[in-house]
Structure formats: C-alpha cells, structure tokens
Records
---
Amino acid sequence: MRTLLLRCSSVALFVLVVAAAARAAQGDPAAQLAAAQAKIAQEDPQGALDILDPLVKKQPKLAQAYLLRATARLMLDTPGGKEDLDHAIQLDPTLRQAWLDRAGVAVAEKRYPAALADFQKARELQPDDPDALLNIAAVELLMGKLDDASKGFDAYLGLKPGDAQAHYMVARNYALAGYAGLAIQTLQQAVALDERMRAAARADANFNDLKSNARFQQLLATDGYKPPANAFHAQRSYPAAYAAGRGPLLPATMDALSAVGEAFQPQVEVAPDWAVLWGAMRVKLTDAGQGGSVELTAAPNAMTPAEWQQRSARLLDSINIQIAKRKPRGAAKPPG
C-alpha cells in the first residue's frame, strides 16, 4: 500500500516525568493529556481512550482532549474520530494539529478539496512552516493542478535548497501522481545532494511505476559519487566475486566491518555492478577480473592520516580473513 507523501506530523509527543503519573491519578487535566499522549506514542490507543473518555466528560470544552481522542480512534479505526477532529476545531480554531490531521483524513478518503482547504488553514496559522507548502502542493497535484502544484513545490524547495530529503519528498509526490519526467528530474537533484537518496528510491514502492523507465533505471545504475578534494583513498582486489551482491565479497565485507568495529549504516545499496556501504568510510564493491574489488574513501576531516592508514589497512586485511572463512575446507589456495 502506498503511503501518503504529506508532512502531516502526528500528535506532538510530550516527555513524561515521574510526577506526571501521580498528577494524572489526581485528575490533573494537563497530566492526563500527557499520559494519553504517551499511550499514543507507545501505540496503545485503547489505553489512551481509557484516559480520554472520562476526561472529555469532565472537561467537555478541552479541545486538546478531543484531538487526542480523534487520534486514538483513528488508530483503532473506530467511529467518532472525524467527529472529534471537528469538535476540537470548533472549540479551538487555532489548534493547528487538528487542521492537519483532518486534512490527512480527507486525503486518505480522496476528498481533495476539503483537504486543500484544511491545509491552507493550517498554513495561515503557521505561515513560516515550509512543510505547509509541501502539503498544499501535494494535494493540488492529486487534484490535477500541475501548474499550481509545481509552483508550490518550487517555493518549498527554494526554502530548502540544500536539503536532499526535501527534494526526495517532491520527487515521490511527482512519481505517485504519474509525472515520470518531473519525478526523475527532482530525484536526480536529491541524489546529487545525497547519494543515499538513490538507495532510498530503489526500495521505495512509490517509485514502482518508474521501474520500466529507462531514465530511472539509468539513475539507479549510475554511481556518480565524486570524492571531496584531498579525500583519503585505498583499494584492494580479492579472490572473491561481488556478482551483483550474490557473491561472497559483500557478506565478507559486512562481517569485516563489524569485526573491526567500523560502524556503518544499515542501508546498503546493492546494484548489479556495484554496492555501496556508508560510515566514516565509504565502501564500494565491484567485480574485478576473476574476483572483486573493495574501494575505500573518506573525507579529509573524517580522521587523521595516521588513523586512516590504520583503520583502512585493518578493514582491508579483515576482508581477506572473512573471505578465507567462507572457503570450503580443502579448497585450493589462490596462487601467490
């Protein structure tokens, strides 16, 4: 199932202190609201309702209680959630989160004009929030208003010129709405800012309709990384193939990183001709001759030259050890 690509943040979470539980037990509305929010954060909507149902009876004009109860009811998919949002807005029209949540419900139900109106109201309440532009443009795109949506997306990106995630969000919206050219163009900009956006797009169901698009496939297949000036660099060949991630080189490299204590991100990008892992070092794997190759790079400010020499050599040596562990017993040793 495709997910909404809007920045409708869930109900803001409060940090509970130990005394909050005691105040909640004593009937303090603020403490009860905080306790209900904590239940929602713990994905326990029924526990939140157990707190909120008595609270709204005692405090029928407490808008925040209706907002939280709406969230709990919508999580449980039980009746009354939308009505609670309406009631929260009636009690406090400045409660921005209620407008955002009601807009999100309208988008899910494909009531786009209603969603647009609520997002616009939320923006009036906080005009300096860049995500308001994203929300409005996303709904305009769903309504087929491409020109208006594109202007809104451009304005949003103008406020976040170096933000790869912002470009990625816009690309996802274009892809979801079927605008392949605009989606790929914006995704290219996101990847140029942070190559990890390419890895994210590779696994993102919202780009599924582009899988047969030659430009999209070219983007996914191209490693356009350019190391910064004076970057550290090391490379070594091994008697183990990469083989599109199916050979022993990738698991051996991952085990080696763990063995030497080099932290790396769980996101690993695996392409037919190469793979990339990210940490203090960028680790790239490819096939080379009868085996494979591992290339390490790091920014010049990531560590001292002495640290680089020690850490890179230790990792490259450890890869050899991990490859040897994977050889079947009795296997012939490589020449030399």
Note: The first helix runs from residue 18 to 25.
---
Amino acid sequence: MNNFVHNALRVEEKDGLFFARRFPNAVTGQLAAHALYEAMGRSSASVQLRLYRRGKVTLTLQRFSASLLPKKGQLNFAERYGRPLDLSESLDIDVDGMLFHNPLTSGVTHITEGEEITIHLPNHHEVGFTLEGSFEPIPFHQETLLCLGDSIIQGVGVHHSSEGLCSQLGQILGMNVLNQGLAGSLLNPKLVVPLASQVDYILLGYGTNDWSIREDKEEFRKDAELLFANLRSLYPHQPIIVLTPLYRGDHASVRPFGRFEEVGEILNDRAVTYENVTLIDGVTLSLRDQFDDGFLHPNSTFITHLAQALGDRFPLRI
C-alpha cells in the first residue's frame, strides 16, 4: 500500500483499514496538548493516493469524527476565533486531469474510467481507506517539500481537498509535500524532530496565531531562534522559505503581543542569521478581499494566487 500513498510520512494499518500519517510518533506529546491538535494531527492534509488504473478500482473509505472542544484547562480556540470553524470539504478524485468533487462520506467508490488516478484525501478529517482492484503505482517525485505551520498551511479555508496550499505547491513545483500544518498551532520548535523521510526544502508558515494568542513577545523570539536552530541542525543545507503572516482583517487590533507587523520583523531578524533562508512577505502576496471566513482564512481563490506567487519565488536549486 505504501507505494500508492503520496505525501504521507508513514502508513498505519488497523482493523483492516490503512491510515496515512503526517506526524511522527515523537511529537505525540505535543499534539496531545490540545484537543484541536489531536484531531487535526490525525487528518490527512495533502495526502494523495496515486495510481495507474488497469481495471476496476474500488476505494473503501471510513470517515472518523473527533471532538474539537477544549479539555479542562485548555485554551478555547473557538472563543478566540469568534465564529464557528467551517471544516466542510469534499473528497476530490482526479481522473486523467478531470477533477471531481465527491461528498466526504464513509462508503465505497468504484473507479472504472481513466488511466491516471489521484485521490486527494481530506485536509481536516481522519479517514481510513483500502484500495482494491487492478492498478499500478505512480512513481514518487524525486524531491520533497516539508511544510510547517498553522491552519492555513494545513488547508483550513478551502473546502475541496485538492485545493490546499501545500498540495498546489507540490503540483506547481513537481515535488512530494509533507504537510505538517496544524490548525491553531503556535510556532513550536518541539515539532521539529528527525523524520524517517527525505526533506529537500522547508516552508514555514507560522505567526498569525502567535500574534493573536501569545502575550510574551520575547517568548516568541526565543522559540523562533530555537526553531531555526533545530531546522539547521537537522537540515544544514536545505533551502528554507519563510512566509510571514498573511494580511488579516483585524491586523490593526491591539494585542498584548504588540503590532501585527512585529511578527514578521522578528522572523526576519532570526532568518537573516542563517544562510540559504528566503523570507517572503505574506502581506504583500495577500488578496485582502478573498477570505473564507471574512477576515483570517484565505479562500480557494486566495490560496491559488498564493501558491502561484510562492512557486514563482521558490529558490530552486541549480
């Protein structure tokens, strides 16, 4: 099964189903810090099942539900966010370049047409799956992009599983992607651990949650320094692309952290001390009238624009 599962760190089998995992066991404790992290950490953001169909193919999918409600003593993200979090999405299946948006439900899908098939697993939900029939694996790309960040990196704000930022970047750049975006996440150096996977490029997309939640700016500065140090220890030569926070409608609000712009300034101060780090100003790339929720999460139009802009600026190795 591993030969058909793209953009996953590993594949687990349980009760006759396969599960694509994005995070290593070493960060289980970090994901357990909040119910939202636990649920989102089990999702399959940017994972694809890719195959050449040689006959009838049957996909069996089981969707699992998880509570996002905070446990006692945990931060109430819903109160901070101020509105319901819309995680609705489709199961997208690409058949020879034609994309079909299917309901994300438990059940069986029969694929009897097309040769090259890509099944985009959901960005926000945990699913178990099996594939049966006559098919061959599509080879993996030669290079891999590791994406670290928050809900925008994970894919919140788009409602078709193929339209997430990392998935689109992978297609534009011709790379595998390992999407370790985590909804609600602050910049967290403890999420940077050795991986049993090749990494050729790193994209960082942190900061907007830090500005809205953190009260200690110096703590953020220290965590940013440790994050870069950890990355350079594990990946001494790989290009790192830092996307500073995108424009948000409440950017002028008064926060204990300070000005919204200070997040980007701190990330820039840390980034310039390391070689082969490219800083990209998220505000400059932002479409200020294209939000899924009206102020924070980009919609699909915004994300497609962002993916194309990042692809144009990507520091490809020569």
Note: The chain has a mean pLDDT of 96.
---
Amino acid sequence: MRTFPMRLLLSAVIVAAFAVTSVCANAGSSTVSKVGPLKLCTYSTGDANEGSQTLIVKVVALGGRGVRGTVRFVAASKKLDRTVPFTLKKSGIGLVALTVTPPVALTLTTTLRVKPIRTRTDHVNVKVTDPNAPTAPQGCVAR
C-alpha cells in the first residue's frame, strides 16, 4: 500500500505531464491560427538629383506580433541579391528599407517563419521619382 506523500507526488507528476503536453501543443499551432494573410506594400522615396532612392517595404500580417521573417531583394540587371531580416511589431507590421539606383526591376520574396512557412513573391519596378510630382496617396495599397 502506498503512503500519502507517494500518492501526492504521483498525482503531481501526472498533472505536470498533462500541463506540459498541452502547452507544447498550443505553442506549435498558435502561429497558424493567429497570423492573418501576408500583405506587402512598397513605397519609394529619394532625391532624383542624387541618383539613388530608398525602397521601403511594409509587410503586414495581422496577429503576427513577434513573428520573424525575411525579405529577399533580387535584381539580375544590377547584380543585387540581398536578404534583410525583420520582426513584426505589435500591430503585425514590419518595415524594411533598401537603397537602390533607379530604374531597376526587383523581385521581392517575403517569408514568414510560422508553421507552415508563408512565402509571397512580388515584382516591383522602381523608377526615377519626380520631385515636382504630387505626393503619393496616404496609406498602404496592397500589391
């Protein structure tokens, strides 16, 4: 016959095993259900007189707070192949900036490290901006 402390210890071990199992199951699957669809917006800014512009990429995945990812910039004509890491902030938004010399055609491959991994590929043409042109519309226009 078992003693009372032994029964208490055995009960505690069983409860702990179920608690750890449920936490592990939720940790692996939580990113799938909470992170919304992956959206991408691009803006370019810079001075035409200097000959370079900054391409700003806005990655949006609602509910993705703290999720890490990468944006890969590839331009065959300019021999550009760069991968920039980012982390989605509290609102599910991550910003990445890259200086480019226009005109250039870029292929952007955005990857979020969630289960299953989400990837999105977009093609962006960066043209020389006219400093006298009207300002771009406010907000993010999804591509």
Note: The longest strand covers residues 39-47.
---
Amino acid sequence: MNIFKVKNNKIPGTNYKEVKKIALDIFIISKLKTKRRPYIRSIYFNKEKIFFDYFWPHLFDKNYNDKIRRLKYFNCAVELMEKSRNKPDICQSLENKNEIFYRFYGETINKEIFCVQIKQNKKTGQKYFMSCFSKK
C-alpha cells in the first residue's frame, strides 16, 4: 500500500453545515474552471480528467454522521487525486465487468490515513471520483 502525504489537513468543524460550506467552496473552484461538468486533472492518469458526477449523489445516500466524516477529507482527496503518482489498489467490479475501481491512500498532516476511491468505465475510459473516507 503506497501512501501519499498531502499538505492539507482535514476540514475543521463538527457540524454538517460548517463542513459542507467549506467543501463546497473547494468544489466551486474546480467547477468555475469549466462551463460543463466539473473535473480535476490527475497526474497518475497522465493528466486525464476525473469527474465529480458520482461523489455528491453517493454522499447524500449516507447518514448524517457518515456525511460529515467523509466530507472532512474532501480537500485532502482533491489534492491526492491531482498530485499523487503512487500506484493505487486496483480491483474489478463484481457487478459490472465494464468498471474498474482504484483506491488511493493518503495521509494528512496529523498522520490520519484516508482512502480515495475512483471508478473507471472501461467502455468510455472516463473516471469518476466516488468517495473518500478514513482508513479505520
């Protein structure tokens, strides 16, 4: 397991409203760069785009405490996806053979290990940011 050390720390806050506001401010920066779907470019995937289409709907399916826990790692996850060159864990989807999942691991300044999951559609080659969570 290759761990990438990010320079950001987790988003501070105990309240969902506080954490969501900071995470949305970070998201809006990448959203303003394009007129279409928001994305970031990843060094590991040779500057290919990673879209945010699945992250927000996936997050809203979670319960209140889980939303807060996952959103706190949002800025760390964005930095990891942009700058990491470390090899991720790769696994084939059991439900759909046209999907591949990549799991990147990162470490915050406070030595907390987290995971970022990216889904790739084999037919189109597009990559989607699915989730970020602590590795506990």
Note: The chain is about 30% helix and 30% strand.
